[in-house]
Structure formats: structure tokens, C-alpha cells
Amino acid sequence: MVTVMVTVMVMVMVMVMVMVMVMVMVMVMVYPASMGYISSAELRDRGAGPGQWIDKATSYELQDYSYSLCRHTPDSTTNSRAVPIYATTSYVFNNSEHGANLFGLREAGNIYSRIGNPTVGVFENRVAALEGGAAALATASGQAAQFIAICALAHAGDNIVSTSNLYGGTYNQLKVLLPRFGITTKFINGDKPEDFKAAIDDKTKAIYLESIGNPRYNVPDFEKIVAIAHEAGVPVVVDNTFGAGGYFVRPIDHGADIVVHSATKWIGGHGTTIGGVIVDSGKFDWGKHAKRFPQMIEPSPGYHGLKFWETFGAVTFIVRARVEIMRDLGAALNPFAAQQLLLGIETLSLRAERHAFNALKLAKWLESNPNVSWVSYPGLESHPSHELAKKYLQRGFGGVLSFGVTGGGKAGSQVVDNFKLISNLANVGDSKTLAIHPWTTTHEQLSDEEKLSSGVTEDLIRISVGTEHIDDIIADFEQSFQKSATKPQETGAPEKAAKTGEGETPASLPGAT
């Protein structure tokens, strides 16, 4: 009897050991060593800086896109699989020396949630991985992201070079707000590389682009523009909001140095949360261009003479943006918003794929519809940027298009009003299809001449294509066209497409999305 009991106990112990070994193997497979928490030194090297709890992730290839979006190290205290919300303003120091080291940037860790927060840190790290960057900084909005990025690069007396084909809010920030701080912008017509080259001078601190222009959907030739900028010692900043968190295009892969996003749009993806993010490629050599960027090299008066480039190396930019600009401006993302954006990231690849599929289907359907006079979408051969779009946008052509209806402004307004499924509002990147008639809404306060100069025609309707079934989206268009004052018998004016697909007039409207 004793022998039998001993035998049973041995068998049970062996089974337990086998189960433990299997569990360990599974954990290693699911949570490899490269995804564990990182040391303070490595955290510094990656540019996370003070105030960040961060989980490791790797940039993705197409085949493991969804996996990379979702994975993270479980919470060390609770083993929570979902990212916890750290609703705290501040963090207890181990002792006075620990606090002094954190404030002096001699040690990485949490100080105050205006500078960094554990939940926000997960979001930052994940977006950095998706964009192929070294580190990221989350902000309260997309406007805050671009403002902080520019303020980290330029001071009073400096300038930025940008195209005039920009989102209206960006144009207004560059044209109206930044000059109040002594930072001016040289706007060029279009996005020809040679025009950027001609505009650069010894006070130029960045070239600013959009990966897919809003509202013209122009796609710049990243590689040529980057080559020109780097020859002059100037970094390239790209607003990749329409690139959907790196799904459609990763500007860093084509040489861009800094990427900004309105995370409100495709990253969040559900119209619930305002947020922004800056991604540092970690590739720009600030030391080589010390004369143009002394703030990166010389002793910092706010940190007892600390030298950012000497201390933080490749991620100097993002660390300085965090501990100097964000610290003083305070436009930090809160942890509740970060959690919402993290939920959006987990379905980003699925949504982006559907956005692009639906947008191309809808664009082609509109192109053949007698109620439509023109369509602007980079996935169409008729779009001026189609060849560049094919080169750079290899997973789809984005989720936004514009079109003109026959019958003019009255018909355009009626088409939007008669939608049932599609919402009439000023946003893009939602999982729901959105429409707006800019002539009578966002640009209503302008004269007709000003509307035309900003790329808005009376017949233009902008559609942010959602993830609904394409048949339902098209059905809503069909019923709306039937109730509206469109004029299918008219030939329309295809040349109007140039006003959204190309053109040389500046996008001069400050305003809504």
C-alpha cells in the first residue's frame, strides 16, 4: 500500500513538473524576454525619460501586425492582461535621494503624470513600435503634438518650411499662432522637392509635411524631400494622421525624422477621445548639426547644465520634448484617454483595412454615378498623386475622399442632410462613415473667393469612410441622391477635381477638422 502511495505521489509530482515546464514554455512563447520590463539605462537609451512605465514591443511586419498591436507585458503587481488605468497625479519616492535623481534626470522613473504616466507610457511605446520609431510622447491632442514638436526644434527667429496643402488647423497654427512666438513658416505651393530646397535657409529648423494631405489627399515624395532636407541638416516632420498609425504608410521607413499624429482619428478610431502623439525616429544626428540646434547640445539652464545630446544620444529630441516642453506647457494625455486609445489600437489593423477597402469601392462607385461630377481619392488613377500613392501607400490608399455633386451647393447640402446612416459632422477616422459639406459649414464664414482659394468648391462633399458594410454605405448614397436636387443630366465639371487634387492656392482656413 505504501509503495502504491509513493508511486502515485511521484507520478503526481512529475505531472506537476511537466505542467510547470509547459506553462513556462508557453509564457516564454507569448511573452518573450524582449517584451519584459527594461532597465533604467535602457529606458533612457530608448528615450522614454522620466515618468514612463513602459512595456517592450517590436515594430511590426504585415504578417504579425495584429499581434504587435495587442501584446504587452502584464501588470507586474496584478498580472492584469488589460493595461491598467493608473489614475494618479504623482508617485512616492523611495527616499530623498531617489527623488533628487528623478528630477535631475539621472534615473528613470515616475515623477508626476504631467510628465509621464504608466498607462500613457504603454500607449506611447506601442505607437512608437507601430511607426518604427525609438520612442514617443503622448499629448492631449494632435494640435498639441505638432506644437510641442515644433517648439522643441525652433525658437524665436527661426522658420519652418511647409506646403500650403495642409489641414486648416495646422495651417492656422503655423500661419497665425507660431509667429506670435517669433517662429515663421515659409509656405510653398504644392510639394515639389525642388521648391523645398529653394526655401531652406540657415534659420530653417524643420520641413513639415502631411503623409496624405488634408483636404487634397496629395502624397509627397518622401524620399526626395528627405534627401534634400538632410543634405541641409534639417529634420523632416510628418503628420501621419491619415496614415492610420503607420498602417498605410510609415514615414520613418522613408527617412522622416519625427512623426506626429492626431490620435483622435484612426488610432482611437471611434470618435470618443481627443489625443495626440509624437514619435522620434532616433536617427537624426543632432551632434552633427550643433550649430543649427544648439538647444540639443549646449547645457540646459533648466537642468543645472545637463547636455541632452551627451546624456540621451539618439533620442535627445523626444526626451527634451518631454522634460522641457511638455513639462512647461502641460498638454499631457490623461490615463483614461490613453486607455481608450489603447483599445482603439487593438483593432487598428482590422479597421484600417476595412476603411481602405470601403473607400476605394465607394470612390469607384461615385466615379461612375451620374449625380457626381468628380471624385478625389489617391487610389483612383485620375488623382494627381496616384503614382506616388502606389509607391508609398502599400496597404491601401486611406479612408477619406471628396467628391462634387451636380447641382452645386444647394444639392451638396441636401445630399448631406438626406443621409440616414452617414453622420454629418466635423471629424474623420471614425469607425462610422462621416460626411460634411464644407461650403455651408466649416467654411461658411468665408467669402466665395476665400472658399475657392482654400480648395473648397460649392459642390464638394468630404466623406470619411467607415467600417460599415459597403453595400449599406452605397445604399445611403443612393437614397440621398434620389431626394436631393442633383442634376444627373448635367455633364458636370471634372476640372473641379483639380481644386481638391492639386492646385497652387494656400489652404487658408483656420478651423475644424
From TrEMBL:
Catalytic reactions on record: O-acetyl-L-homoserine + methanethiol = L-methionine + acetate + H(+); O-acetyl-L-homoserine + hydrogen sulfide = L-homocysteine + acetate
Cellular component aspect of the GO annotation: cytoplasm
TM ranges: 6-31
Listed Gene3D superfamilies: Aspartate Aminotransferase, domain 1, Type I PLP-dependent aspartate aminotransferase-like (Major domain)
Subcellular compartments: Cytoplasm
Pathway: Amino-acid biosynthesis; L-methionine biosynthesis via de novo pathway; L-homocysteine from O-acetyl-L-homoserine
Keyword Transferase: yes
Xref: PROSITE patterns: CYS_MET_METAB_PP
Keywords noted in UniProt: Amino-acid biosynthesis, Cytoplasm, Membrane, Methionine biosynthesis, Pyridoxal phosphate, Transferase, Transmembrane, Transmembrane helix
Region annotation (Disordered) ranges: 481-513
Class of this enzyme: transferase
A GO term, aspect molecular function: cysteine synthase activity
The enzyme's E.C. designation: 2.5.1.49
Source organism superkingdom: Eukaryota
Cofactor dependency: pyridoxal 5'-phosphate
Entry similarity comment: Belongs to the trans-sulfuration enzymes family.
Protein name: O-acetylhomoserine aminocarboxypropyltransferase
Native species: Exserohilum turcicum (strain 28A) (Northern leaf blight fungus)
